Amino acid sequence: MSGIEAVNTVEVRALTVRHRRTTALDAVDLDFAPGVHGLLGPNGAGKTSLIRVLATVAAPSAGRVELLGQEVGAGSDHRGRAEVRRRLGYLPQEFGYYPGFTVREFVSYVAWLKEMDAAAVPAAVEHAVDRVGLADRIDAKVKTLSGGMVRRVGIAQAIVNDPDLLLLDEPTAGLDPEQRVEFRALIRELGRTTTVIVSTHLVEDIAAACTDVTLIEAGRIAYRGTTQELTDLGGTEDGEAQRPDGNPIERGYTAALRAHRAAVANR
Amino acid sequence: MTTTGGTGMSHWHVSEELAGRYAAGSMTETDAWSVEKHVEACGGCAARISAAVRARPETGAALDAVRAGVLAAVAAEGAPVRGPARSARRRSPGAVTRAGRLLWAAGPALRAPWLLALVLVAVGALALAYGAGAGEAVRPLLLVVAPVLPLAGVALSYGRHADPMHEITAATPSGGLRLLLTRTAAVLAVSIPALTLAGAALPPSAGWPGAAAWLLPGLAMTLAALALGSYVGCRTGATSVAVAWAAVVVLPVLAASPPATTGAAAEAARYFAGPAAQAGWAAGALVCAALLAVRRRSFDHLEKL
């Protein structure tokens, strides 16, 4: 990830999201360039709120959100937002499907919604389904698939348009260990050209697939750094080599979280 | 692997003997790569290889088959004389036709419970009229209920509360008014023939217009639900219009005890019968359509929490 200075595909300034009385995100500033970025944090920290704003599903309460060079916030232009949405891939934390749909129909339907060229859709659908390892089940009804397979169908619909910005909310939930390994290889490959933002509460997803980490805690950015830096934080916390409380990156996560909480408490 | 050769390697050429071995497939893989790389740039050697391949009966036959296949495929694509890009796009093999795609896109709108309700109303009206002997009292009932059914269909097919795929569609460029209108069209395309045909099959009742009288009210109310939905969401919009209609028209008819039903129904008939009433609905439909056109962007707006 060194070398050429990459252009930021995501620029977020003073982003605030409120759900009625509670504040999900509090004046967050973030930038992302092509590569695989991890969003890590305890449940309820604001990861999903951030992903949904970046997916142009939810409106920010305040602040500026610029995706792929276009402003998409509350007062933004319709045409610009449609342009961004064509180049977007989004795997929600939870999603439904129509009972009669096969895998092929489901992914094709999303390709239609993304306004892809009709002639390119059949090949793109097969390629996307193949990439998530479901080529042999492409004509099976989605409702006959297991939870992990439905999750992979969700990933296939997200990548069917070769998005420039790919947002994955808890993509490894429900995948078995082997599928997780395959999935991480897939997003590393996608991250060479695409900005991939992965929200997860699994530290090992970050360690295996992401070049950098953004730690979110209670609506604020608690830590930003490369995966290596977070691991080092765990290694130098104290000298013991073998500890029962997890591997270096897990300790780094805990250390960063504690440091952030202490800083907030002292403010 | 891609860094083969370089630029200054064309000081050798493919001999007849080498070409023969290439055609026979008896060359080592790396040598074959070298030959293939070379003939990309050298016309003479390409011709020699080509002649050697044609000379062998089995490879010659394979080449002829490929040539015939390519020609047949090109012919099937249609003459690409005018606007090749456009005609290729229109005739793309395997791509569903535009009409088919629209129908398919609208398909999920026709939710099973709603379709069931529609069939129940249509068949129920016929059963009531002919089976239960209610006769001419049934058509007014159907006319009064019919405009509400498309509203229910719209409310059940679009939006966060109704559409299981909403979280995904909301992030796509077509997830707004385009999808809503496609689904509304599907709802109308099913409910209009079903309810109008059922109405036409019922015995006529005195003082009531024909079975088609509900069409303009139904259209106006559907558009009103969409226009209202642009402010408060489709479910609330459709529910509000349905409740208002029920309060003004349906309840008085249903609530009236049998001897008074005729009076209440006659009251309700005013909403359908005559050019004035129908013109009123048409004007209402136009106003709602105009409002919807003004508010068209509101459906792709971001969800406010």
Automatic annotation (TrEMBL), chain A:
One of its GO terms (molecular function) is ATP binding. It holds the Pfam family ABC_tran. Keywords: ATP-binding, Nucleotide-binding, Transport. It comes from the Bacteria. InterPro entries: AAA+_ATPase, ABC_transporter-like_ATP-bd, P-loop_NTPase. Residues 10-243 form the ABC transporter domain. PANTHER family: ABC TRANSPORTER, ATP-BINDING PROTEIN (PTHR43335). Belongs to the ABC transporter superfamily. This is ABC transporter ATP-binding protein. It comes from Streptomyces gelaticus. The lineage of its organism: Bacteria, Bacillati, Actinomycetota, Actinomycetes, Kitasatosporales.
Automatic annotation (TrEMBL), chain B:
It comes from the Bacteria. The keyword Transcription regulation applies. The keyword Transcription regulation applies. Keywords: Membrane, Transcription, Transcription regulation, Transmembrane, Transmembrane helix. The chain crosses the membrane at residues 114-132, 138-159, 180-202, 214-234, 241-260, 272-294. Gene3D superfamilies: Anti-sigma factor, zinc-finger domain. This is Zf-HC2 domain-containing protein. It comes from Streptomyces gelaticus.
